[in-house]
Amino acid sequence: MCGVIRSRSAHCWALSLLLVLSLGRPALAAAPDSTSADTTKTPRGALLRSALLPGWGQHYNDRPIKMLFFGTASAVALRSVVVEHRRINTAPTPEIHQDRAARRNTRLLYFALCASFAAIDAYVDAHLADFGSDVQLQMRPGGALLRFNATLAWR
Q1: Does residue 40 or residue 128 have the better pLDDT?
Q2: pTM confidence score
Q3: Is 110 within 8 Å of 122 (Cβ atoms)?
Q4: Residue 37: its pLDDT value, please?
Q5: Which residues lie below 8 Å from residue 43, measured CB to CB, with a gap of 6+?
Q6: Angle, nearest 10°, between helix axes 94-127 and 64-88?
Q7: In angstroms, rounded to a whole number, what is the distance separating the alpha carbons of residues 45 and 60?
Q8: What is each CA distance from 61 to 15, 105, 127, in whole angstroms?
Q9: In the structure, what pLDDT confidence band is assigned to residue 139 with cuts at 50, 70 and 90?
């Protein structure tokens, strides 16, 4: 019986991972639309997307590695919430029932934190999208060099 549960769980994990990885693939034959009037990415748009589906805001900001990280982490956390929720009613004693409910609530907190971090990351990343690359760090045999260039506009 235990092998069946583990096998089913492994299949769910594999399907979840496949779903997250398939969302990370770039669209085939996707050409930028030159007729689109507004191509700027807004921080609010990134925040709302990532709040609805963790990782979507990172995809919106063209950050595929972050998208996979936040998407996978939130999928794993949500899956663990579902697993713990299903185990609650099979508890033989009230103490175990209470422990399983507490574990489920902790897993739900992990999911909420992951989704919140994804939304905050997408918002900040969209704000910093036009940030210049004026800061450079170079490693040399004699030591490291940190160079910062600033442009000031006087009016």
Answers
A1: 128
A2: 0.63
A3: no
A4: 47
A5: 123, 124, 126, 127
A6: 160
A7: 8
A8: 25, 31, 10
A9: confident
